Amino acid sequence: MAIVVNKLLPEFESIATSGVKVTNHSHLGTTMVLFFYPKDNTPGCTTEAMQFRDKNKDFIKAGAVVFGVSRDNMTSHNDFKQKLELPFELIADTEEKMCHMFGVVKNKIMYGKKVKGIERSTFLIGPDGILVEEWRGLKVPGHVEDVLKAVKTLNKTKTVKEKEKEKEKLAA
Hints:
With 172 residues, this protein is of the alpha/beta class. Helices cover 37% and strands 27% of the residues. A five-stranded mixed sheet has the order 5-4-3-8-9. The protein is globular, with a radius of gyration of 17 Å.
């Protein structure tokens, strides 16, 4: 089942670095950012991971947890995470289950040959498990700031709605 904006995520289960289990319901109550990238230790992916690293405290403060996702294995992820001192976990999607579910596997041309690769994409999942926003085929510069802004807007909107509900309960 493919993902759709403004719909609940379909069921999935993956393991991330540090043995963290990530499922469609494991982080309910928390905004989740999933950024899919082609490969550990490549220039664009390293830059993107470092930008998420550098803004991680801002994401936490805004009420979000960040996960990086690629087809690399756990050994590669652990090395990449340690080398870059990444404070968030990386999901090893070696069987491409999440990649296919999120529709990020694309045919690319590299050095004149067709290859199957991962389209750099990010997905914002609300605390209720609903896919709120997606960025596909993105460019790294400025992207992390755009995602952080969307997280802040989402969580500010949720907070306002929660306060309104509390007022309604008190008035009743």
